[in-house]
């Protein structure tokens, strides 16, 4: 009995849990915590279609058993012990899915564990043509991602002198000069959160740790100038005119 | 009249489905945000990463199951098989570019390939499709071009490499004396059942049945694979991989390992690896872009529903060695 229930309904129940979770995230504007916005419409439409199919399965399948010539013990073991373990696994998986998708609140990636050497290795992920197009745009609308891409490509000092920066992100100490330089960083998402890469721009502010902590969210305004730090590896850094703590934004990632 | 009974809608079944949705929605809406405050740090990140893999993959899995249902239930019997060349080599060549018509990424290709196997394709042919389609489809090609253009031969190497490796694996499995032994016994049995197309009146029921069957096969594997991928992401520092980036051999191995762990969708993996372009050699980038769409943690978990562990180990070894050779060749030639 339980084997038949598991074989026939496990996928449909997991589908409904996933569908409810996705549609709730979409409705509350939090789907971006897990996937890139380019997938929002596709994800929601596919979830609705799958929900209809799952409900359809409930509505249609109970009437087919008498006609059924297929093996509904399905893709599982034949021995009694094997079926028992499969059954326990199905219960554990369903419970874990229920808790993680339907009970746990949506959450963002931990910011305190990011290291500055991760940033310098992966900074900037825009194709060269898109980076070139940035020059000439309004720099005050640039996020950390656009500035990181420009710095990585080697933007000249004349440009940075004329174009102020106003960015927000979380704080990461620069390992090369942790007393005087920190990064304002964000996680950049390419596809989904699993590919998140920290990107950031350096800020030169001596003794910044007296007023800020690692992982704290801040807004920084200022201009990029040649980095005054003697040990930092970053050639340019923001010399801030304002650094103010902020709450973590509802959409903390850049895409 | 069985067919009339089969297509009748069960009010009780419908009610159970609706009640279940209502219960899930109620749980979601009433869940107290602070109840799980203790789950943070690495554990919290692991759960977030696993959920992101699941939420990103689920639509593609549903799409693949949808295509599979269309192929098995709604298209005329033999519709696909009749249009394929009869000789095995050109047949596999056509199958390896079928992704152009069915642009589903690798997650969706697994249920689709299962549908092809049930519809009569051989193991070698399905394997060729399974490995080639995530790379040889328009979305993947366009995004790779947007990321790299013609630079360092990355795009050309990816297309040619994916095509050649998929056909190499297809040839090997088509020459095995008992290719069906590559399948799990249960799936082999289900392939041997007469899957002739259902009468028109039963198609809805058969579609619902296939949906229930395929989601039961795919989703547990996807969820477990996503959990493993999320936990490994938290446990293994990328620093270890990135420090190997400038060595011709180790850079290729490191990015293949990264592709295996990250399990990123082939449609956008080019943008992900673009960020590593300055750290890693071109051959390593190509290896990432060829190996990842064919083999990764999430894919292996899903493929295990269909193929024996021994088969997957052999395919993984074949694809890994071929990709390694490809990556080294690109590093030496470019």
Beta-strand portion of chain B reads: under 5%
Overall tally of domains of chain B? 1
Indicate the structural class of chain A: alpha+beta
Characterize the overall form of chain B: globular
Rough shape of chain A? elongated
- Cα distance, first to last residue of chain A? 48 Å
Largest sheet of chain A: 5 strands, antiparallel
Keywords (chain B): Cell membrane, Membrane, Transmembrane, Transmembrane helix
Organism (chain B): Diaminobutyricimonas aerilata
Pfam families (chain B): ArsP_1
Protein name (chain B): Permease
What distinguishing features does this structure have?
heterodimer, A: 255 residues, alpha+beta, five-stranded antiparallel beta sheet, 40% helix, elongated, B: 334 residues, mainly alpha, globular, disordered N terminus, Permease (chain B), UPF0718 (chain B)
Question: How is this structure best described in words?
Answer:
Chain A is an alpha+beta fold. Chain A is built from 7 helices and 5 strands, in the order αααααααβββββ. Chain A has helices at 2-27, 40-60, 80-103, 116-122, 128-134, 144-153, 157-162; strands spanning 165-173, 181-188, 197-204, 217-226, 236-245. In chain A, strands 3-2-1-4-5 form a 5-stranded antiparallel beta sheet. In chain A, helix 1 runs antiparallel to helix 2, helix 1 (2-27) runs parallel beside helix 3 (80-103) and helix 5 packs across helix 6. The model of chain A is unreliable at 66-74 (pLDDT under 50). Chain B has 334 residues and is mostly helical. Chain B has one domain (38-333). Chain B is built from 17 helices and no strands. Chain B has helices at residues 2-7, 11-30, 41-74, 79-83, 88-96, 106-119, 123-132, 138-148, 154-174, 185-192, 203-235, 238-242, 248-262, 269-274, 282-294, 297-303, 309-333. The longest helix of chain B is centred in the first third of the chain and has 34 residues, at 41-74. The model of chain B is unreliable at 1-6 (pLDDT under 50). Chains A and B meet through helix 1, helix 2, helix 3 and helix 4 of A and helix 1, helix 2, helix 3, helix 10 and helix 11 of B.
């Amino acid at each position: 009995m339980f084997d038949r229930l598991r074989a026939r309904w496990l996928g449909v129940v997991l589908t409904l849990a996933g569908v409810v979770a996705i549609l709730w995230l979409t409705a509350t504007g939090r789907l971006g915590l897990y996937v890139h916005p380019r997938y929002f419409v596709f994800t929601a439409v596919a979830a609705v279609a799958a929900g209809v199919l799952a409900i359809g399965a409930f509505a249609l399948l109970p009437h087919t058993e008498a006609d059924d010539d297929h093996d509904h013990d399905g893709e599982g073991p034949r021995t009694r012990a094997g079926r028992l373990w499969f059954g326990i696994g199905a219960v554990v998986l369903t419970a874990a899915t229920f808790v993680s998708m339907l009970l746990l609140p949506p959450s963002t990636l931990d910011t305190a564990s990011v290291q500055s050497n991760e940033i310098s290795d992966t900074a900037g992920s825009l194709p060269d043509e898109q980076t070139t197009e940035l020059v000439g745009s309004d720099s005050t609308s640039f996020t950390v991602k656009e500035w990181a891409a420009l710095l990585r490509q080697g933007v000249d000092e004349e440009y940075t002198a004329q174009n102020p920066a106003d960015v927000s992100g979380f704080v990461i100490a620069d390992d090369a000069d942790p007393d005087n330089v920190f990064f304002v960083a964000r996680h950049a998402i390419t596809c989904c959160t699993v590919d998140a890469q920290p990107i950031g721009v350096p800020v030169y502010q001596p003794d910044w740790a007296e007023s800020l902590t690692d992982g704290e969210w801040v807004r920084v305004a200022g201009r990029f100038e040649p980095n005054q730090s003697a040990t930092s590896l970053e050639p340019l850094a923001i010399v801030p005119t304002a650094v103010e703590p902020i709450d973590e934004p509802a959409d903390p990632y850049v895409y | 009249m069985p067919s009339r009974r089969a297509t009748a809608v069960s009010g009780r079944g419908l009610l159970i489905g609706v009640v279940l949705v209502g219960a899930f929605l109620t749980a979601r809406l009433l869940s107290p945000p602070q109840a799980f405050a203790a789950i943070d740090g690495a554990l919290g990140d692991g759960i977030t990463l696993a959920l992101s893999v699941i939420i990103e993959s689920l639509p593609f899995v549903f799409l693949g199951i949808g295509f599979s249902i269309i192929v098995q239930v709604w298209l005329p019997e033999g519709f696909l098989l009749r249009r394929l060349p009869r000789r095995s080599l050109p047949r596999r060549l056509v199958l390896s570019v079928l992704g152009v018509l069915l642009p589903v990424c690798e997650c969706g290709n697994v249920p689709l390939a299962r549908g092809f196997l049930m519809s009569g394709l051989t193991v070698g042919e399905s394997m060729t499709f399974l490995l080639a389609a995530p790379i040889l489809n328009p979305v993947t090609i366009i995004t790779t071009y947007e990321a790299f253009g013609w630079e360092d031969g990355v795009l050309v190497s990816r297309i040619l490499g994916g095509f050649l490796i998929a056909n190499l694996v297809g040839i090997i499995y088509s020459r095995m004396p008992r290719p069906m032994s590559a399948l799990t016994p249960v799936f082999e049995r289900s392939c041997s059942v007469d899957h002739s197309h259902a009468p028109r009146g039963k198609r809805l029921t058969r579609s619902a049945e296939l949906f229930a069957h395929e989601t039961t096969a795919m989703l547990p594997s996807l969820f477990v694979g996503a959990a493993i991928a999320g936990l490994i992401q938290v446990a293994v520092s990328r620093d270890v991989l990135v420090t190997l980036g400038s060595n011709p051999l180790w850079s290729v191995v490191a990015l293949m390992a990264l592709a295996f762990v990250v399990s990123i969708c082939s449609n956008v993996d080019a943008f992900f690896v673009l960020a590593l372009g300055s750290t890693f050699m071109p051959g390593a980038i190509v290896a990432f872009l060829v190996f990842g769409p064919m083999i990764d943690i999430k894919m292996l978990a899903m493929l295990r529903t269909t193929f024996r562990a021994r088969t997957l180990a052999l395919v993984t070894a074949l694809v890994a060695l071929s990709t390694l050779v490809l990556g080294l060749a690109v590093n030496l030639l470019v």
